[in-house]
Structures are given as structure tokens and as C-alpha cells.
Amino acid sequence: MARLELAGLELAVLIVSHAAREPTLAPVPSSRTPHLTAKLQGFGTTIFAEMSALATATGSVNLGQGFPDSDGPREVLDAAIAAINGGLNQYPPGPGMPVLRQAIVAHQQRFYGLQYDPDSEVLVTAGATEALAGALLGLLDTGDEVVVLEPMFDSYAPCIAMAGAVAKPVTIRPPSYTFDPDELRAAITPKTKLILFNSPHNPTGRVFSRDEVQCIADLAIEHDLLVLTDEVYEHLVFDGLEHVALAALPGMRERTLVISSGGKTFSTTGWKIGWLCGPAPLVTAVRTAKQFLTYVNGGPFQPAVALGLGLSDEFFSGLAADLQAKRDRLMPGLIEAGFTVFPTQSTYFVTVDIRPLQPDGDGMDFCRHLPHRCGVVAIPTEVLYMNKHEGRHIVRFAFCKQLDVLDEAVRRLKTLG
Ligand code: PMP
Ligand code: GLN
């Protein structure tokens, strides 16, 4: 460990001091980055880049950024290789390859009973990240408000800001991580244009119940709002729970854009093949923005993801079972290491309260020192909140790693106590 720390010392010091100037993803008025547009002041460097660099520099076990350490289905990988060898190496069509759009339509029908037209109601994007950016840039005007649960995925707030719009966060708190319907209602104003809803939820691992999803749908209908649903973890749901697709609830299809991605489902986070489905006028609005962001991406990966979306039920249930076993391996270890561990029902992630181990509850400080103290990297969730104090003491660990890697992380974390 000491050797690894030594090897990474110089770089680690650089990263920490750089990060100290730009500490969080939400606006911090006191630190100004030269040249950067006012809209993005305070957003700093994404925590995932900072923490993965720290993991590399210190040789730590990286339970920070959420990516698996094993490959997904062989046939999906082979399909991409075959596509490259078969010459599918030029720009795909703007809305995405027909084979993938057809597969997305079939997937939405198969899992949620939702019907879409592959030509006018589906758009392939550079990951869910670009689907989110394209939707927010294509749908929002200056001053529009977006109601969103916090903690929230790190690209939401900066993309809303780039659109000139305003995020209105509603905090969900552990251990239940449910939302208060009255708080949600209170966040809606005459300026609210849309609700951005992520379930299964990163970083908490919540799978919102049918009643909770219905509550959001009811508010959207009552206030005539659009809804963007971020469902990238749709197939990573544990304990026999159900992922409720909000667009499938009565009256919601026509006001909802569904966003997902192949990254988590096929363990191909580096391929960045995402998509969005919804009524044609909404998809057209998003496509207008999206075509000037990347235009298109990932040609040979598109048919591969199409193949993956058609895999057997056993593949999808096996994926969830594998991750559930990993969750069940890491969680007891985190408890033994001394954290207060909150339940997680889905995703790659589990959240903990660090205060039993760090009484001042400074999660940012904890995560920046953890690699040097014991060779493990985690994510301070404070950066995923606009109300920073709500998440200050909460840290996220990823369990999408092989069992021996999780065991080694636990062994190291137990030396903290
Ligand atoms: N939304 C959520 C909730 C996520 O956790 C992620 C991270 N992968 C994304 C969107 C972005 O997905 P992609 O990698 O497909 O761009
Ligand atoms: N979704 C992953 C996470 O939350 C990584 C996202 C990213 O690096 N942009 O860790």
C-alpha cells in the first residue's frame, strides 16, 4: 500500500489542490474559473473524473465511478467486432441505425407494453448523457424550471444550467429515500416546464414504488408538465421488485420522454449508446438539439446493442441476480467496517453515513483521504445535492465489481476503525 501511495503521491497532490479550487458540481460563487461561461461557474471537475484519477494515482480499489470490471454478454461484444469487420465504420443515420431503433421499440413493448414508431418516436444518442443534454437543451427556455429529486446524477444540474433554466430540487433522505408529495407539489410553480425523474435512482438505489411513480404522474397531469424519465438502471433491480415505467401509466405516454442506455445493461459503459423514446413532436425537438451536439456516434456498437436488447429473459434476470449477490457481499462488509449502511434496491450503488467513522461528517474530506488512508475510492454524494448539507455525511460505494475485489475493499476499509 505504501509503495502504491508513494507512486501516486505527486499526481494525487496535484489533483487534490486542483479540486480544492473547484470543489463541487453545484455553483460556488466564491471560486471563479477564468474564461468559463457564467452559466457553468462553480461546476468544477466532475467527481467521477476526479475520483477515478485518484484511484489510478494511488492504486486504490475503485468503488467510486460506476462501471463494471467484467465484460458483458459475449454475443454482444462479438456483434460489435463483426460490425467493425463488416465495414460499419462510417456515420450511422442521424436518428440511429434502423436495426437499433427497431430493437428499442421491441424492448419497450416487451418490458412495459409501450408502443413507439421507430422512425418518428425513437432517437439514438451518445449515451443517456447526451439524451439528457439534448432533451434539456431542446425543450427548455431561459428561466424555465425543472423539478428534480436530489441527490441527482451529476450531469443534470449543469445541463439545466446550460439551457439557461433553473433546477428546483426536492430532497430524498435516508434511510427510506422516499419523497414528500407535499414538498414535490410545493416545488412546482407557474414556471415549471418539466419533471426530471430518475428511477431506479443513482446514487440511492431506490426503486420508486408504483404509488410514488403515480404521484409524480398525477402532478405532471395536474400542472400540464413534461416528464423526462432516466431509466438507465431499469434492468438492475433486486429482491423481486418491479421497475415501474412512468410512461406506461394512464395519460403519461404523450407527455413523457423515456431515456435509457446500453451501458449498464450490457456492461459496456464505454460504448455510449443511449436512446430516448416519446411522442414525435417531443422527439423532434430533442433531435434538433442533439444533431448539433454529436450528430451521431458509435456506428458499430449500435447493431451490437440491438442484439443485446433482444437477449433472453434469463440474461436480464441473471444480470440482476449477479449484481444482487455483489450488493449482498459488500453491504455486510461496510457494516462491519463501521458505517451506517442504507438499504439499496437496485443500481450499482449503496450509500452510507460516515459519521460513525468520521464524526465531523465531512464526506468530501473523507473521500479525498480514503485512498491514502486505506487504498479505497468512494464518491462523496454532497456533490450530487444542491442543498449541500443534506448529503455532506453520505458517501456512495459501487458494488459492480468482482467478489474478490469487493472482499479486498472491505478488508482495507476495516483497517480504518
Ligand atoms: N443517468 C444516470 C442516473 C446514470 O447513473 C448515468 C451514468 N451512467 C447516466 C445517466 C449516463 O449514462 P450513459 O453512460 O449512458 O451516458
Ligand atoms: N453513472 C456512473 C456513476 O454514477 C458514471 C458516470 C460518469 O462517469 N459520467 O458513477
How many domains comprise the coordinates?
A: 2
Distance between the termini: 17 Å
Shape: globular
Low-confidence runs = 1-24
Provide a descriptive summary of the structure in words.
It is a single chain. This protein is α/β, with parallel strands linked by helices and 417 residues long. The protein has two domains: 173 residues, Alpha-Beta Complex (Aspartate Aminotransferase, domain 1); 236 residues, Aspartate Aminotransferase, domain 2 (3-Layer(aba) Sandwich). 42% of the residues lie in helices and 14% in strands. It is built from 15 helices and 13 strands. A seven-stranded mixed β-sheet has the order 2-8-7-6-5-3-4, sandwiched between helices. A four-stranded antiparallel β-sheet has the order 9-10-13-12. A two-stranded parallel sheet has the order 1-11. A hairpin with a 7-residue loop joins β9 and β10. The longest helix has 25 residues. The protein is globular. The protein starts with a helix and ends with a helix. It binds 4'-deoxy-4'-aminopyridoxal-5'-phosphate and glutamine. 4'-deoxy-4'-aminopyridoxal-5'-phosphate binds next to α5. Glutamine binds next to loops.
